[in-house]
Amino acid sequence: MAVIGQSERELPIRDNPDLESFDIVSAYNKLLADDPELTMPVAAIEALIEALSQSSAKTVFETMDLIKTQSAKLRNAVRNPVALTHGTDLFQQYLVMTLKQPGPDGKETSSHENFEVVRQHLMRNGRLFAQRAKQAREQIATIGREYIRDGYTILTHGGSRVVGTLLGRAAESIPGDARRRFKVIHVVNEARRTESLRVVAGLRDRGVQVATIPESAAAYCMGKVNMILVGAEAVTANGGIISRMGTYQLALLAKARKKDFFVAAEQHKFGKTFPLDQFDLGFNQDILDFHAGKTQEGEEKATEEPAAELVDYTPPEFITSFLSDNGVLTPADVAKMVIDLMY
Fold it and tell me: N or C: which terminal CB in the chain sees fewer CB atoms within 10 Å?
């Protein structure tokens, strides 16, 4: 984590804090609603910093206990906690590493005086993580444009912010590097149609030719594709990804047709999650509902309503490379980086 600039928005520091009146779940949801560009891990980190600003914790133990308790409240309040858990785990690790550093007086940061310096620093600069997440997208876009060549047809899906940024920047000219001339096939899931059309409109505004297809046509179109580019909600400890439902089947098709499958993902999405298969994500998606009776009234609607939130797991053996703010990484590189970050 980089040093936080003093120009960032400051969170209020209360003289008489009352954490009981603070609802971290509401704070998390408000952060996501107020800033559509914010990712779930970063929103979780910012919500924890706001919780810290409402607390009277004066010791390392009290602070770590607070962070763990508030993180648990967040995890228990959402259907799919994987992405935000990666954010809370990263923040806890960052806090532990920071507190191990010597303070300005040479004492351990965990001493009362130096600990308070760290605490005040975090509270006054709560927007660092969002700022750096957006900078990470631009870094990935710079790295990723090198993999997009003139004449390519790129298949993607969903509304990944980092994928949208990468493709948008590749379509622009920069000093010493002409714009790439490529086409995009965007696989549209009807449950996420609005976000898909937003991405499509943004690319067409930049002069990129985009074709939209239903998910059922992905295999049919694969022969026209040069590469597949997707985002991720979370990157797992073994170098796989958890992403929007349908990502895994695109990876299977890419493998069968020997197409490169790239994942654009920021480092703050890396975490300790290690699924064994599709049904080991740590939460129940209620996708399979076996019964022999007739379709009940409202059943179809109930099945469709959460569809926009459904995810699947793509194992590392289906991924060619990650385009990250730390460069181009293989799944094995990612696994090593997670160990270095989290252990």
Answer: C
